[in-house]
C-alpha cells in the first residue's frame, strides 16, 4: 500500500507540474447534447478556450472531423508550434452507445483505451462545448474541457453561456485558458 501512495503522490505532482486539471473523487457526469447528430458535427472546429492539457503546447489549435465509411469518425488535431512547424495527430472516434450519440470515445494510439469525448452542447454551426474526464481508482480524476468554434473567434456572449454550462457541470472555469488563434494563416 505504501508503494501505491508514493506512486499516487508522484502522479499528482507530475500532473500539477504539467498544469493538468486533476481533482479528488470521481468524475462529474454532466448532461450531454440531446439528439446529437454526429454528421452535422463533422468539419473543422477551432479551439477558443480549454482546461490545461499537457499534450497541447502550441497555438492555432484546431480539430477536423470526417465521417468514415464504417461509421467511425476520423479525428485530426493540429497546432502551430513556437518553431513555426505544424504538429498534428490523427485518431478515430466512435459513438459508445447509439442511445447516447453525444458520448464518444477517442483513440489516438492502438492498444490504449479510448478517452471520453462528451459533447455537452453545440449548435453545429458556430460553437461546441466538449468535456472529457477519466477516473483513477475512484480516488481522483483528470478532466479536460474545450470551447470550440467554426471560426477562430467566438462572441463573449456565447463564451459566457458556455462558461455557465461548464460551471453548472462542476467544472472549475477559473482554470480555462484562452487559445491564441492569431497568425494562423499557415494552418489553412
Write the layout of secondary structure elements.
Blueprint: H1 2-17, E1 21-24, H2 38-41, E2 43-50, E3 59-67, E4 73-80, E5 86-95, E6 103-107, E7 115-122, E8 127-136, E9 140-149, H3 156-168, E10 177-178
Antiparallel strand pairs: 1-9, 2-3, 2-9, 2-10, 3-4, 4-5, 5-6, 6-7, 7-8, 8-9
Overview of the structural elements:
- With 188 residues, the chain is of the alpha+beta class.
- The protein has a single domain (2-187), classed as Lipocalin, CATH 2.40.128.20.
- The protein contains 3 helices and 10 strands, in the order αβαββββββββαβ.
- An 8-stranded antiparallel β-barrel has the order 2-3-4-5-6-7-8-9.
- A hairpin with a 5-residue loop joins strand 3 (59-67) and strand 4 (73-80).
- The longest helix has 16 residues, at 2-17.
- It is globular, with a radius of gyration of 17 Å.
- It starts with a helix and ends in a 10-residue tail after the last strand.
Provide a concise account of the structure shown.
The protein is an alpha+beta fold and 188 residues long. It has helices spanning 2-17, 38-41, 156-168, and strands at 21-24, 43-50, 59-67, 73-80, 86-95, 103-107, 115-122, 127-136, 140-149, 177-178.
